[in-house]
Amino acid sequence: MGDDTTSNQRATVLRDAEIAILAANSKLNEREIRELYDEFLTADMSGTGRINKEQFCRYYKQLVGSEHGLDDIAKNVFTVFDVDHDGTIDFSEFVLANAIEMKNDPDSVLEFSFHMIDTSGDEHVNFDEIVAFVEKGLKLGITNEDKTIIDAKQITRDIFAMFGINKTQKLNKQQFVSGYEL
């Protein structure tokens, strides 16, 4: 029992120090970080202090409140959150990614979207990545009747035309973010 108390005290001290660091880096306040910690503990069903892709997908579906068509989106969000690409998300990655997602300014939203679209991780988005992203978004927001009317490839061609590029070219993050100001 003595070891459990000592270990819990160490975790609290570590967590308090981590909260201070995360608050400084994320611009979130202590209350917001503690709320995210509670969410993180709920998602960390194994109690390891890390969330794997399967746990995250379950958490994400519960957060969004739907099972329908979210597997690919949840996996993309996981990839964005897994900053060190070790196949798991620790609490720091969880907080920093949520801090980005919680921002409401257009540039932050576009930067987050860029990272969601860039499934290859090469810091560029190509035609196929944008088509895939648009298709996933359409699955969430359209009815079966609308599927015959809305064409993800045409939407992507229109986006590329807006940027003045063809489908063999790629966009970097700066182009992507600044291009939406056109």
From TrEMBL:
<keyword id="KW-0479">Metal-binding</keyword>
<feature type="domain" description="EF-hand">
    <location>
        <begin position="69"/>
        <end position="104"/>
    </location>
</feature>
<dbReference type="InterPro" id="IPR002048">
    <property type="entry name" value="EF_hand_dom"/>
</dbReference>
<dbReference type="InterPro" id="IPR018247">
    <property type="entry name" value="EF_Hand_1_Ca_BS"/>
</dbReference>
<keyword id="KW-0106">Calcium</keyword>
<dbReference type="Pfam" id="PF13499">
    <property type="entry name" value="EF-hand_7"/>
</dbReference>
<dbReference type="GO" id="GO:0005509">
    <property type="term" value="F:calcium ion binding"/>
</dbReference>
<keyword id="KW-0519">Myristate</keyword>
<comment type="similarity">
    <text>Belongs to the recoverin family.</text>
</comment>
<keyword id="KW-0677">Repeat</keyword>
<keyword id="KW-0449">Lipoprotein</keyword>
<protein>
    <recommendedName>
        <fullName>EF-hand domain-containing protein</fullName>
    </recommendedName>
</protein>
<dbReference type="InterPro" id="IPR028846">
    <property type="entry name" value="Recoverin"/>
</dbReference>
<dbReference type="InterPro" id="IPR011992">
    <property type="entry name" value="EF-hand-dom_pair"/>
</dbReference>
<feature type="domain" description="EF-hand">
    <location>
        <begin position="105"/>
        <end position="140"/>
    </location>
</feature>
